[in-house]
Design brief:
about 0% strand; mainly alpha; elongated
Amino acid sequence: MKHNYGKLLVPSLLVFASITIIFMGAPRFWDDLGINHRVVVVGNALLYALSAFSAWMHLKALNSPSPYVFTNSVMGSTVIKLIVLGMATMVYLLIVGKEKSVYAIFFTMFLYMVYTALDVKAALLLNKKQ
């Protein structure tokens, strides 16, 4: 059964495009609210790239005869996203110091939950079709 990699990324792409347009369309508005728009856009791009990697992992795991490989790919991609986002947050905090945007960090963590939910939903649909 051939799966379309692009179809897996459509929901994530819609979230990525929407968030990018919203935050790049009115950067002063978000900055005035205390949400650094650059942090959110970079975090959003990072999460989208990680979602693309997750989709690739899921498709590769579907070809394995063992059902545990697919479960491991779902759990592994979730943990990889969390670790990479945590490391990116630490780098951001080390670079900016006291000028950090806590609201942008929390919003990016919310985006992590959104992207993870979309990835798990897509993975479950893939597994159901298989």
